[in-house]
Amino acid sequence: MPTSLLKGKKGIIFGALDERSIAWKTALRCHEEGAQLVLTNAPVALRMGEINKLSALCGNAPVIGADVTNMDDLKNLFEQAMTHFGGKVDFVLHSIGMSLNVRKGKHYTEMNYDWNAKTLDISAMSLHRVLRTAWDLDAISEWGSVVALSYIAAQRVFPDYNEMADAKALLESVTRSFGYHYGVKRKVRVNTISQSPTPTTAGSGVKGFDGFLHYAESMSPLGNAGSGDCANYCVTLFSDMTRYVTMQNLFHDGGFSFTGVTQQVIDKMGNG
User: For residue 101, what are the contacts with CB-CB under 8 A and spacing of at least 6?
Assistant: First the structure.
């Protein structure tokens, strides 16, 4: 039920591709909670996805294409957003990830390093570029909030998650390091959410994804957190209710991250 938690706030949502996207559902929840939005994605994703449909559902929110590896694109995005809003941005969702080695079937031990550099650039250093652009333009309001989406493979080994594990570890490091400086300068909070495996269009492309999903479900006391619940969590982090939460990697996974083993898993193993 909407509570107007984001009434009067203005935000940029990166990465909404289709209805399965966490970014898509987060945009809808932010709109329901009273926020004004600008939607953005890479030009190729804008052509492939359905973002204009999302725009209509969010009060005809402007859609502005931006390549997150291009500083000029990001500068244009923030400048257009501030013009549209008539002022600064209050929150940003970074929901961006792409692995060329995964896409092309390269095993982690045999990765193509040129592709790996592209993966790290798009999936992790893009957050640094987004924050740097906002920093240079003074585009985010005091007590603003930036959230990026991560996964527990940044801390633990999931063999088929491949180079994306390294990308998520770098993403979380950028969150801490830039989060410190942005907090000191403008009281802007920067956090990551480490989400349960979620059947998005991008996530489902990881080899063995169904195994990830079922294992996490059996290891989580509350079960896997769905994309709609992740959207709700994002809303709380964009709101004024979490002003002193920053530089954190926040697990949103039904308890998976702190569970050693469950009776359900023991029973399955015992049954062979």
Answer: 108, 111, 112, 115, 116, 119, 162, 163
Q: Which helix (H) or strand (E) holds 216?
A: helix 209-219
The beta-carbon contacts of 112-119 under 8 Å, at least 24 apart in sequence, are 116/163, 116/166, 119/163, 119/164, 119/167
Amino acid at 12: I
**Structure token pair of residue 87:** 């002022």
Structure confidence at residue 212 (pLDDT):
76
Structure tokens belonging to residue 221? 């006391």
Q: Show the CA angle centred on residue 162, arms to residues 127 and 174, nearest 5°.
A: 20
pLDDT at 3: 85
**10-270: which CATH architecture?**
3-Layer(aba) Sandwich (3.40)
Rounded distance between C-alpha atoms, residue 57 and residue 141, angstroms: 26
10-residue mean pLDDT profile of the chain (272 residues): values are 91 96 97 98 88 96 97 98 98 96 95 98 98 98 98 93 96 98 98 91 66 88 96 98 98 96 86 63
- Across the beta sheet with 249-252, the strand order is 36-40, 10-14, 89-94, 140-150, 189-195, 249-252
- Written as six digits, the tokens of 185 are 């300068």
DSSP 197: P
